[in-house]
Amino acid sequence: MTYLIDTHALIWFFNDPLRLSEVAYNLIENRNTPCSISKTSLFEIAIKSNIGKLNFNLSIEKIENTLIILGINVLQLESKYLDYLIKLPQFSDHKDPFDRLIISTAAVDNLKIITKDEKFNLYQNIVETVW
Predict the structure, then answer these.
(1) CATH number for 45
(2) Which CA distances in Å does 69 have to 10, 21, 55, 105?
(3) Burial environment of residue 94 by CB neighbours within 10 A (0 to 12, 13 to 18, 19 or more)
(4) Start-to-end CA span in the chain (Å)
């Protein structure tokens, strides 16, 4: 199984690894576990840093380079993810565009999402999560 790391899990991995569950930390840290991150997460970090919702001390370029060194695949934003996003069910209590694109990416590429976000459970018929 290949895993897709949700944005908050990536942030915690870099800034506060004790916030990760033991399972999540081990999956991300273990080079033998195939993990990916969506370029969407890097976009989310940049946006939230810019508007003051996130204080992240690494540049986006440094984050991406570190991920590559760690053997974590950085998935580019592709039209197939956007096409799936158009068909993704709408839930009134979950409209986060970053989350929805991460879910679409995982659905298209058959990835299990490493996330603590309980709102991802709304999509349990579409994607699996692990924490």
Answers:
(1) 3.40.50.1010
(2) 15, 23, 23, 22
(3) middle
(4) 15
Name the residue with tokens 């996330």.
115
Task: Give the chain's domain count.
Answer: 1
Task: State the amino acid at position 129 in one-letter form.
Answer: T
- The structure tokens listed for 75 are 């998935």
Angular region, 77: left φ>0, alpha ψ -120 to 50, beta rest: beta
Range of the domain at 101: 3-130
In this prediction the pTM is: 0.93
Each residue's pLDDT tens digit, 116-129 = 999 999 999 999 99
Helix, strand, coil percentages (3-state) for the chain, rounded to 5, are 55, 15, 35
Share the mean pLDDT of the chain. 94
Listed residue (108, 93, 90, 96) closest to 4, CA to CA: 108
Helix, strand or coil, per DSSP, at residue 3: strand
